Amino acid sequence: MTASPAGSASAQPRTFLPPEMLPRDGRFGSGPSKVRPEQVEALTRLATTWLGTSHRQAPVRAAVGELREGLARFFALPDGYEVVLGNGGASAFWDIASLCLVRERSQHVVIGEFSAKFAAATSAAPFLAEPDVRRAEPGHATSPHAVTDVDAYAWPHNETSTGVMLPVERVGAGDQLVLVDGTSAAGGTRLDPSQVDAYYFAPQKSFAADGGLWFALLSPAAIERVERLRGSRWVPAILDLHAAIENSRKDQTLNTPALATIALMREQVRWLNERGGQEWAAARCAQSAGIVYDWARAHELATPFVAEESARSTVVATIDFDERVDAAALAATLRAHGVVDLEPYRKLGRNQLRVGVFPAVEPDDVRALTACIDAVLAEGSVLVR
Ligand SMILES: *Cc1c(COP(=O)(O)O)cnc(C)c1O
């Protein structure tokens, strides 16, 4: 356990957890998420030679190139697919896709806050028709439906706000595109990239880096769509996917990226690839998530929030608590011990804990977490009388 009680001035722990019971690393956030200390050490080694140097010169471009190649290897990208990146995080990609990938009308699976935001973006775009929205209640899954009057289907691989994971299997025909938000799933679960035309994500979840960049795996069909739409509408330069593709091919970005984020992510992609890549990462996350779900199933005061087992996320496990438990007080008690970021998604409003179990998180630490929760519940200070 390295952290001191983080942000706990107002939350005096009512339960005392002995240090030997605590996870060695107490970071269980769903993004930003745990950065491995070894990544930070790798960054330190670059402190006086690489960090603080030009992103237009060979050393930084080589790092971007290695990162792009590392991702292509990790995802076993089919021929013709390209790894493209730019500034602005996954949220920027919703606007980029609205401008540069959707031709007239998109269909959106909306099952939580993140998937709702992309639907809101295409709905607000004055040059697009009102999107076809397929909704499910928080905690539930639904699927895209093949129809003829859309040119793109959009859904999240993992809806981070609820912990619902959806399959990534191609839907539609002809030149209809599949656009999947892989922000929290990418790197922690299996993906067959041939099933998708744009698979986009940010570095601060399974790739254990900082936020601020977006990455997209683009199929030849997606690249062709970008070319065809070019010039048909006004696109702000910073959101221009064509410019991002051209820059990425040269291992550059339109404007200055966060070099530290690139270095941290490159280190994580190296680490993942050395250990066995996607299969290894997916198995490790599934193991960690299984520890949380099995614990919840066995505890009389807890249940997995996602009832449908096949829809339960293997990277973000959400656990509902019985009304006898004050889950916010439980999270505060854990936070006071340096076990942090277990609070549920802010707008979900449930009596819940949310556990980010990305590849950087040690399954043993997840086990330790469940032991800590057991201890706090048994002690009784977070129970409602
Ligand atoms: C975190 C997250 C986002 C937002 O990422 P930013 O980089 O903060 O814009 C989008 N979609 C999903 C599924 C996420 O988990």
- Describe the main β-sheet briefly: 7 strands, mixed
Extract low-pLDDT stretches: 1-10
Helix-strand string? HHEHEHEEEEEEEHHHHEEHEH
Task: Evaluate the radius of gyration.
Answer: 21 Å
Major sheet: order of its strands? Answer: 1-9-8-7-4-2-3
What is the tally of helical segments? Answer: 10
The N- to C-terminal Cα distance equals 32 Å
Helix content: 25-40%
Q: Could you report the average pLDDT, rounded to the nearest whole number? A: 96
What would your notes on this structure say?
The chain is α/β, with parallel strands linked by helices. Helices cover 35% and strands 14% of the residues. The chain is built from ten helices and twelve strands. It has helices at 37-45, 58-74, 89-100, 113-124, 220-229, 241-249, 259-275, 277-298, 327-336, 363-379; strands at residues 82-87, 106-110, 132-135, 152-156, 158-159, 164-165, 177-181, 198-201, 213-218, 302-304, 316-321, 352-356. The strands form three sheets. Strands 1-9-8-7-4-2-3 form a seven-stranded mixed β-sheet, sandwiched between helices. A three-stranded antiparallel β-sheet has the order 10-11-12. A hairpin with a 4-residue loop joins strand 5 (158-159) and strand 6 (164-165). Helix 3 (89-100) runs parallel beside helix 4 and helix 8 (277-298) packs parallel to helix 10. The model is unreliable at 1-10 (pLDDT under 50). The site of pyridoxal-5'-phosphate (PLP) has 13 residues, from helix 3.
